[in-house]
Amino acid sequence: MKSILITGAANGIGKTIAEHCGKAGYRVGLLDLNEKPLNDTAGAIENAVVLKADVTRPEDVKAAMDEFGTPDTVVNNAGIVRFGPLIEQSIEDFTTTVNINLIGTYIVAREAAHRMKAADGGHIINMSSINSVTPGPDAGAYPATKAGVAQMARQLAIELGDHNIRVNAIAPGFIDAGMSAPIYEDEKVRNQRAGAVPSGRLGTAEDIANAVLYLDSDNGSYINGHELIIDGGVVHSLLAQLPRD
Ligand SMILES: NC(=O)c1ccc[n+]([C@@H]2O[C@H](COP(=O)([O-])OP(=O)(O)OC[C@H]3O[C@@H](n4cnc5c(N)ncnc54)[C@H](O)[C@@H]3O)[C@@H](O)[C@H]2O)c1
């Protein structure tokens, strides 16, 4: 049975990825900060293992992988956003965002990669964002961390290819789940955002879970060092948004 360890699995996109991987027959490690929501998620998944850990703490991450065993695949999904103009953010907002999104991703990837090398193979997927390629209003430190997460995937891909380890990134767009769900409670914002997407709708957590399953399948086996943008085409639609006679 193939195993997958998903960070930030208690809520939002990570939770949906965990549920889909469970249905697809994986043994699923659900890693997050708090046990209660993790247990709720794990309850509906066959072969789920609850791993209470903070991705910013190397000792937590090591203990989680000691307990779970070397995962075949890791989804580095835990992340936060602190909204506000970049230079108005507190240093605490900036460093916390960097610590969780960038350094936490590194800590998990590093621990997994050493184990995967010993196991002669594996796959790491970092969750970036369309903010890795385009900045956004009031996005604070978030775009910088997401650009880092995507570049880290490329760096690891060139370092680990010889060990039969692939490393990719997924960049979700306007996703109606998790940290963005409150934004889309406003009908006007919802319609404006959906209307700006060439595919004509907001994305779902299922869209991202499907991308994970595809990248991790035999059909995706030659995809390495790639950032897969899952956004209905919105990030590259600037010229279509401009008025013209
Ligand atoms: N929702 C979106 O629109 C969207 C768009 C692009 C990218 N993303 C990315 O997708 C990922 C998941 O986002 P989401 O929307 O599901 O957010 P979410 O807030 O619903 O879930 C994030 C999870 O990460 C966990 N987490 C936070 N800090 C942690 C830590 N230190 N250690 C372990 N777990 C921690 C939280 O407890 C939470 O369960 C994030 O990396 C986010 O940046 C989301």
Describe the structure.
The protein is an alpha/beta fold and 245 residues long. It has a single domain (3-233), classed as NAD(P)-binding Rossmann-like Domain (Rossmann fold). The chain has 8 helices and 7 strands; from the N terminus they run E-H-E-H-E-H-E-H-E-H-E-H-H-E-H. It has helices spanning 12-23, 35-43, 58-68, 91-118, 142-160, 187-196, 205-216, 238-241; strands at residues 3-7, 27-32, 48-52, 73-76, 122-127, 165-172, 227-230. It has a 7-stranded parallel sheet with strand order 3-2-1-4-5-6-7, with helices on both faces. Strand 5, helix 5 (142-160) and strand 6 (165-172) form a beta-alpha-beta unit. Helix 1 (12-23) crosses helix 7 (205-216) and helix 3 packs parallel to helix 4. Nicotinamide-adenine-dinucleotide binds at residues 7-8, 10-14, 32-33, 54-56, 77-80, 100, 104, 127, 129, 172, 175, 177-180. Residues 7-8, 10-14, 32-33, 54-56, 77-80, 100, 104, 127, 129, 172, 175, 177-180 line the site of nicotinamide-adenine-dinucleotide (NAD).
Which terms summarize this structure?
245 residues, Rossmann fold, seven-stranded parallel beta sheet, 8 helices, binds nicotinamide-adenine-dinucleotide
